[in-house]
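Below is how a single chain appears once it has passed through the pipeline. First comes the sequence as given, then the structure the pipeline wrote out for it. We keep one example in the README because the format questions we get most often are answered faster by looking than by reading.
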Amino acid sequence: MGKVLRILLVIVLFIIFFEVGLFSSYTIVTAEVPDVKGLIEMQMDQFSNLFSSQNVNEVFVKEPTHVNFSNKKDVALKMENISNVDGVNVDSMNASTYEDTKSGKFNITIEALGYAAPNSTSGQIVISQKPSYKVIVSSVASYKNDQLVVDTDQMKVNSVLKLF
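Resulting structure:
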């Protein structure tokens, strides 16, 4: 029993120390008296959002569902344009979603290998088949005429990773 009380006391002291540090840093940064109620409400909102049922479900959701879509060439061209790479390998495209694919529209994540511009050294152009980037984009997909189509107008770059 005494050990549990000591652990609880340490946790309470840590929280108090954290709050005092937060309020003092707020005062130093803004040169104003902190709004204690507002700061505590903000922390509680962030804490409750972190453990909301939607976020918890997203963490414990099954593996992503791999999907095949029909407009791969259009998607590759759009990926090339918005990610500023010089080419995207259509054969390396991998699309997946965590959402129900039977619904009307759902979010989709697409990964593909990207290529850099050919290197020119001393008058020679060296074309390499080795990909230079991994491009990851997200968009919305839906079924049109019984084919899954990715909306290229809603595509956003999540990341462009340099491969070594």
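The CA atoms of residues 111 and 136 lie 4 Å apart.

See the next section for the split statistics.
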